[in-house]
Amino acid sequence: MIKTDIIIIGAGPVGLFAVFEAGLMKLKCHVIDITSNPGGQLTELYPKKPIYDIPGYPKILAGKLIENLLEQAKPFKPGFTLGERADSFKKVGEYFEITTNLGTKLKGKVIFIAGGLGSMEPRKPKIELIDKFERKGIEFYVKDPETYLDKKISISGGGDSALDWAIYFSKKSKHPINLIHRSKSFRANKDSVEKVFELNKKRKLNLYLDSEVVSINGENDYLNSLFVKDRSGKGYNLKTDYWFPLFGLVPKLGPLGHWGLDIDKNAIKVDNTNNYSTSKKGIYAIGDINTYEGKLKLILCGFHEATLAVHGAYKYIYPDKKKNLKYTTIQGVTGF
Ligand SMILES: Cc1cc2nc3c(=O)[nH]c(=O)nc-3n(C[C@H](O)[C@H](O)[C@H](O)COP(=O)(O)OP(=O)(O)OC[C@H]3O[C@@H](n4cnc5c(N)ncnc54)[C@H](O)[C@@H]3O)c2cc1C
Known about the structure:
By secondary structure, the chain is of the alpha/beta class. The protein has 2 domains: 2-121 and 250-331, FAD/NAD(P)-binding domain (3-Layer(bba) Sandwich), CATH 3.50.50.60; 124-247, FAD/NAD(P)-binding domain, CATH 3.50.50. The protein contains 8 helices and 21 strands. The protein has helices at 13-24, 41-44, 62-73, 130-133, 160-172, 190-201, 299-317, 328-331; strands at 2-9, 29-33, 50-51, 60-61, 79-82, 86-92, 95-100, 105-113, 119-122, 153-156, 177-180, 205-208, 211-219, 222-230, 235-239, 242-245, 249-252, 263-264, 267-269, 283-285, 290-291. The longest helix has 19 residues, at 299-317. The two termini are 30 Å apart. It binds flavin-adenine dinucleotide. Residues 9-15, 32-35, 40-42, 45-46, 51, 53, 85-86, 114-120, 254-256, 287-288, 297-300, 302 line the site of flavin-adenine dinucleotide.
């Protein structure tokens, strides 16, 4: 079982910065996120948008900020469990034990909830048998891309995520992949759209525009084909081992809302005079997910909260040790 000092729920900017601050205090972290890539809203919602209010950066792309935060955290070797949702927790001795939706168990002396707007849950198409084949041929996240390379893949969606994965798989897969989109135009980045049409010309990608998956079929409990219809009513049966419906993510407070913490309007109440501690000792909430008088949902405010929460966690874990604040210019950080 994974054992650490701080389990951080949420790999958004605030959770990632908490890893760095914890590292300065020699506290180890393990980060869980339901999405398969770190970065929270910045990765999922606006990776190519410039941000103008990060101190020291007059302008930085959201995706680049996440890259930098990962690099800054790297010397402290955080663990990551991606593509899994923190579902429940219990206290076992001095440790909290968290169980994810896939049954992974993690132990930590402290929990930081940095869950932002909540876990980014996939938008699921309303088609018969969708639940039956989930994780048996239907995947809403691409967790370990290498494992699908010799399979027959179909992807639905017209946004960045659908196109990025369609490009990735059509370059690497053994079989041409199918990309199904209900419109003629895409919402994704222009470069990606051009690449998709090029790959279609090279027959590495079969494009089904103005089309939708209307039914699915399986054998021995596993998906084996999709039935796609276009607007004119023409139908296609696509042999498919794995179907990725990538229709975007919807944030939901989800299971964190049932952990017995004080909640106010979908956010976790914290004491901002006591290091952003929640109503349960040893559990802190930082970033967009928390609320207190005067709260501002800004990255910069989340960084401040993460720093103070780490100091609170240190006092909680080592109540008898005194830790004086040391400037990084004095203590340095090895690994850069
Ligand atoms: C379009 C847009 C533009 C913005 N522009 C700016 C800006 O210019 N400046 C600025 O300061 N802010 C901006 N923001 C707000 C900023 O993105 C948020 O303040 C910031 O993302 C909060 O970071 P976070 O780490 O708290 O949460 P998030 O970025 O939301 O990350 C939280 C992560 O936790 C995960 N998670 C939640 N629950 C669970 C669970 N149970 N198990 C596993 N994982 C879980 C989620 O999947 C998510 O990945 C903008 C927001 C949007 C939407």
